[in-house]
Amino acid sequence: MNYESVIGLEVHLQLSTKTKLFCGCLTKFGAPPNSQTCPVCLGLPGVLPVLNEQAFAWGIKVALALNCQIANVMKFDRKQYFYPDLPKNFQISQYDQPLSQHGHLDITVGEQAKRIGITRVHMEEDAGKLLHDTGGASSFVDFNRTGVPLLEIVSEPDIRSSDEAYHYLTELKAILQYLDVSTCNMEEGSLRCDTNVSLRSPGVAAFGAKVEVKNLNSFRAVKLALEYETKRQAAQLDRGDRIVQETRLWNAKKAITGPMRSKEEAADYRYFPEPDLVPFVIEPSVIERVRAGLPELPAQRRVRFQQRHQLSAYDAQGIAQDRALADLFEQALETYPKPKPVANWIMGDLSAYLNAHAVTLADVKLRPEWLGHLLQLIEEGTLSGKMAKDVLQQVLERGVDPVELVNQGSLRQVVDADALERIAEDVVQAFPKSVEDYGKGKTNALMYLVGQAMKRSQGKANPEQMTEMLKRKLVSRP
Amino acid sequence: MAVVTPEVVKQVAMLARLRLEGKALTQLAAQLDEILQYVQQLQAVDTQRVEPTSHVLPLTNVLRKDEPTPSLSQDAVVALAPAAQPPFVKVPKVIEV
Ligand SMILES: [Zn+2]
Fold first, then answer.
1. What is the pLDDT averaged over residues A236-257?
2. B18, B64, B74: best mutation site toward chain A, by most A Cβ within 10 Å?
3. How far apart are CA A65 and CA A76, in angstroms?
């Protein structure tokens, strides 16, 4: 039977504050284990947590960018459970008076625009990190991450396919990167995602039993896990079995989900107001100030790229999605004000290079004006399109201006056959007398022509290759 | 009618990771029930016109700057734990998969 999937996503975002949510411990990733903790984040008796104002401000910023209504008054609550990565035996989170609710995010899948509701964006603290020693009888805890500020971003169950889930996450990440409040790095865990999915028969309003899937380390994993889980549940329903509400873990190696060894009792978190943190009143004036400071977001920038720079929807999407690429695009236009070729080089050779080397723009030393210079060199005819590809590679590898590369004559030898062909043809046209001499058996004339061709290639042609090419041309002449 | 039964005590004890058995359950059930009955008197107060609140202090928006303060040393932290394998705290094996 055909079922409809009903999907919700829960994203945890680590804010890049210098210090933790309620204490002054540093949040640096990769610090020596247990070197960034204090009595507050370890929950020793008699301590007083105090909210980090930067985390609070960034929380409002993210909530506004996701079109949420900001609470007039928010408070923190204790979520109580026992786990070795939680030194206080409770997590400071938000329950019934969260930072914000009722937001939404617009996605486009294919040509189809769709609005996905955002239930809430709330603030909470992170837990520590557990390391497992395979085979041994112990686990090990590093509490450095304990108390690091998180935003929990919960979507409404509005998502209907793994594709929509993927687009939601990509768009969300793009927005979060534009806001510049997190590194959004999934490998380092600063962006984490859980999903839940249930199936229902067409036309049925009620949701089926919800299965939560965790351990998703990439957006691709989310997509694959949802595809797998939808198939698994459909097969089970077709057999007439019921779906039990449970949490499953994605196994990336086997590309399957498996049941998580269930904790012995159902969760009973006994939330109650955190007595050590007073409520927070959020004045409309504060909200308006944050709203006014919001940067242009990817959706707006896409529209602008299409309207002002006449980019295709595809190019606008590809470039605006990544804030660094979008900035590069606009800054390169200051040196070389032709949007289409700039966009082509960003979407083409530059993106290919970044993908092939698994790096981001921040990892290569490319100045926007260098991309402009490269395009100028092509336009002037100093570089052929093929040569320019090679030059871009060198610019990215060596971090130098392409103009400098050309001036230094330090370009690698050009082996571009098209360019050589053109030069050879030009030389033949330009020196009919020498061509004639060669025809009369004067071999010196060939040497002269090769010399001229070498000069025109600014010394970058291979002389032997050029000689061969000219010989062929002269021989084939009437 | 007793609100706190031995079953409730057992459940709460489990959530709080307290080992309570046999006589302790009935004994505590009776005592806790008495305490709750006593507090129950507050239900008689008319709170119709009282704003709900989670805090009694006339304070809001207590914030700190995002500025670092010194952390504890690794040795000090590890020494707090019942078991350790420096620089980590050691706990019984937790397996999720
Ligand atoms: Zn701390």
1. 90
2. B64
3. 22
Nearest CA in chain B to A16: B66
Among the listed ranges A240-249, A339-348, A406-415, which one has the minimum average pLDDT value?
A: A406-415
Residue B20 within a domain: yes
Tens-place pLDDT, residues A146-163: 999 999 999 999 999 999
Query: Which chain A residue shows the shortest CA-CA distance from B92?
Result: A138
CA of A182 to the centre of ligand 1 (A): 20
Question: Does A191 share its domain with A82?
Answer: yes
CA-based nearest residue in chain A for residue B14: A265
Total count of domains within chain A: 3
Which pLDDT score is estimated for A122? Answer: 98
Mean pLDDT for all residues in chain A: 90
| Full DSSP string of B16-73 | TT----THHHHHHHHHHHHHHHHHHGGGGS--TTS---S--SS----EE-S---PPPP
Q: For residues B4, B10, B15 and B17, what is the CA-based torsion angle, rounded to 10 degrees? A: 130
Pick from A51, A140, A280: CB nearest B64: A51
Contacts of B62 in chain A (CB under 8 A): 50-51, 277-278
- Tell if the CB–CB gap between A260 and B97 is shorter than 8 Å: yes
Q: Residues B28-60: pLDDT tens digits?
A: 999 999 999 999 999 899 999 988 888 888 899
End-to-end Cα distance, chain B:
45
The CATH number linked to A447 is 1.10.10.410
The pLDDT, as a whole number, for residue B17 is: 87
| Residue B37 maps to a domain | yes
Domain range for A386 is 296-408
